């Protein structure tokens, strides 16, 4: 088994959360994107939510222009978001389930149960040259659904792993490892993310098929104490140490 390089996509949504708390322009997610690039991040991830609680429409072009890094746009499977993605042409679009009342993306996308709704969306984004990713629970039926939809990437939801305690940690890690292997065997590039921290990232980063991790809340939280460049650099080092 060849271990691939593992990219780090940094989700900068919560820089915008802090900005929006006061309604002004500070702190600017553009500056965060520039620091991520300096610190060795491989991509910028943003989630334009339906309620615009953090990243706003006007942030997209500004963040895209701020660095040479690829932009990964997390988006709900709605016509509005597809139009925005087609207009902005991010490098990648990660389709996520979205419920207005949730605090964060709490579960994976039901790719298996929503084939007919997702198929035209995946096709439109793919036809526009955008790399489509589906944010799914680490379950075989969701990988199979991603294959049927022709999605080139799946992002495996690591939330259950991150929240597990005791013996359940190993069980959840095994699910992610098995599903990363299943995806790769079927020609789908596996990514992972959600709830990853300095303490829990390494067992996930060691899964050889994974090509990218997307990490946000913890890195922005740590940046309050040590700065964003340092938090991204440390996460990179922890990931690199197990590849
Ligand atoms: N990947 C996806 C698809 C997400 O929706 C999120 C949360 O926005 C993340 C990764 C990052 O999760 P966290 O902020 O917990 O690191």
TrEMBL record:
Site feature: Transition state stabilizer: 155
GO cellular component entries: cytosol
Entries under SUPFAM superfamilies matching the protein: Pyridoxine 5'-phosphate synthase (SSF63892)
Pathway note: Cofactor biosynthesis; pyridoxine 5'-phosphate biosynthesis; pyridoxine 5'-phosphate from D-erythrose 4-phosphate: step 5/5
Coiled coil: none
Recorded superkingdom: Bacteria
Catalytic activity, reaction form: 3-amino-2-oxopropyl phosphate + 1-deoxy-D-xylulose 5-phosphate = pyridoxine 5'-phosphate + phosphate + 2 H2O + H(+)
Residues binding 3-amino-2-oxopropyl phosphate, per UniProt: 11, 22, 195, 216-217
Pfam families cross-referenced by the UniProt entry: PdxJ
Primary localization class, coarse: cytoplasm
Sequence similarity: Belongs to the PNP synthase family.
Name of the protein in question: Pyridoxine 5'-phosphate synthase
